[in-house]
Write a structure and sequence with these properties.
The structure holds two protein chains of two kinds. By secondary structure, chain A is mainly α. Helices cover about 70% and strands about 0% of the residues of chain A. Chain A has a single domain (about 1-165), classed as Arp2/3 complex 21 kDa subunit ARPC3 (Orthogonal Bundle), CATH 1.10.1760. Chain A has helices at about 1-20, 40-45, 50-70, 75-90, 105-130, 135-165. The longest helix of chain A has about 30 residues, at about 135-165. Chain A is globular and about 45 Å long. A six-stranded antiparallel barrel of chain B has the order 1-2-5-4-3-12. A six-stranded antiparallel β-barrel of chain B has the order 6-7-8-11-10-9. The N and C termini of chain B lie far apart (about 55 Å). Classes of the chains: A mainly alpha, B alpha+beta. Chains A and B meet through α1, α3, α4 and α5 of A and α1 and α2 of B.
Chain lengths: ~160, ~280
């Protein structure tokens, strides 16, 4: 139990550091802003209650907000992902203990893509705070979702490989 | 009974969701970027130190560019120095000479050298972390300039680090001047390309040309007069008898490295004066 907790804590620290120090500096003509830290919320164990997810999502988002000077922005996006997560994860917890690539690559791809799409849609629309230039905001959402999902798939593959060894 | 408990559970979870959603949205909407940065100050000591370590890696790669920029700036400063020197010594009148010297003495802006340790250009609200803080004399409200133009304004400072709002932040506006005609307007980033900003409120009777330089107005206590910002690449007539001007920035915000924090000696006096005489002095 403690070991598990430490593992998720380690993952959280790693994802936050990667986000703040590496992925925030990636840009492609200013249109792509990948966010990989929501991966934490995606791979948390299925045994967690719905309200656990809400609190964890909110807290992680708020912590990210403090670092990025966007108080409330990431908290909102993460909270909405946390609220929606139980509607797409399997309700029968006997099959797997946490959502991940072990449940099948295609399933995880769809799951991550959906989660990140929700996160980015909320985030980029709130960030722009206007429906002017909606086409640009949409372009930013689509391109960033693709980039983030790609990075999350790579990280998840590395994580699964690492834990099997 | 069982289904009732489940129902209550579901309702309370949804209620928790709504409360937290309201809280986060309220935090986001009701706080200004200034207040947001104040919260960020809590983590600035940690994030600044980490970012400084990491940015040190890329520093060697950008060394050549930084070097060229600094040499160009050196030449410009030397030329200006020689110009001012000849200007002073050419006037024979001693009192004149003295008055000019004292004039220079009263217009004192001083600069604090800083390095950008973290900087984003891909968000709508971009911020810059600098490796100088209150210990180095940095205070909130001070301007940040690079060797080729305006960079931002300091929002919050911890002991050794500070965070500045970037010119590339859709919440930020700066007063700017069309240099050839000395017309003032306001300049902001529309949130698209990190190389272009927009200058508005320049009236239609002003003669514009592509390639004209846009500089700071010197109206605020933040930036000195005539700090370069960018050059005009195009313009169109916006609503309300004013131009909407597309300005290409001189500074490359992707590779910001060494910058200066501007400290104006009479800043506090000026702010106090403006505060006392503004009609809404209470806010």
């Amino acid at each position: 139990m403690i070991k598990q907790l430490l593992r998720y804590l380690g993952l959280a620290v790693l994802l936050f550091a990667l986000q703040l120090l590496v992925f925030n500096n990636i840009n492609f003509h200013g249109y792509v802003a990948p966010y990989i830290y929501p991966m934490l919320l995606l791979v948390l164990p299925l045994s967690l209650k719905h309200w656990h997810l809400l609190i964890i999502g909110f807290a992680c988002g708020l912590l990210m907000d403090v670092f990025m000077h966007t108080l409330g922005l990431h908290a909102t996006a993460m909270l909405i992902v946390a609220y929606l997560r139980p509607f797409v994860t399997p309700s029968d917890t006997s099959r797997a203990y946490a959502p991940g690539m072990r449940m099948g690559f295609r399933w995880f791809l769809k799951y991550a893509l959906l989660g990140i799409l929700v996160h980015h849609t909320v985030l980029f629309i709130l960030e722009a705070f206007t429906f002017n230039n909606l086409s640009i905001t949409l372009l930013r959402i689509v391109l960033s979702t693709i980039a983030s999902t790609l990075f999350i798939l790579i990280l998840e593959a590395m994580r699964v490989n690492g834990s099997e060894r | 009974m069982n289904s009732l408990i489940r129902f209550i559970q579901r309702v309370s979870t949804t209620l928790l969701f709504l409360v937290l959603l309201f809280l986060s949205l309220w935090l986001y909407i009701s706080t200004s970027y200034y207040q947001k940065a104040q919260f960020g100050r809590l983590a600035l000591g940690l994030s600044g130190r980490l970012a400084e370590r990491v940015s040190g890696i890329g520093q060697y790669i950008r060394m050549r560019e930084a070097n060229i920029g600094l040499r160009q700036e050196n030449v410009a400063l030397k030329n200006e120095l020689e110009f001012l020197r000849s200007y002073i010594t050419l006037s024979d009148d001693k009192t004149m000479r003295y008055s000019r010297l004292t004039l220079f003495d009263t217009l004192n802006y001083s600069y604090i050298m800083a390095r950008v340790v973290n900087n984003t250009v891909n968000h709508q609200q971009n911020y810059i972390t600098l490796n100088v803080g209150r210990c180095d004399g940095v205070e909130q409200g001070m301007g940040v300039v690079g060797h080729d133009g305006v960079v931002g304004v300091v929002l919050a400072a911890s002991a050794r680090y500070s965070v500045a709002i970037s010119l590339l932040n859709t919440d930020f506006k700066v007063s700017a001047r069309h240099r050839p005609t000395s017309t003032f307007g306001s300049l902001w980033w529309p949130g698209r390309s990190y190389t272009h900003v927009r200058l508005a409120e320049i009236p239609l009777h002003v003669a514009l040309a592509v390639g004209d330089t846009v500089v700071t107005s010197g109206h605020s206590a933040i930036f000195p007069r005539d700090v370069p910002i960018g050059s005009i690449v195009g313009y169109e007539i916006a609503e309300g008898n004013a131009y909407s001007i597309d300005v290409r920035l001189f500074a490359d915000f992707r590779s910001l490295d060494y910058v200066y924090v501007v400290r104006s000696a009479d800043r506090s006096e000026r702010l106090e004066l403006e505060h006392n005489f503004s009609p809404n002095a209470n806010d």
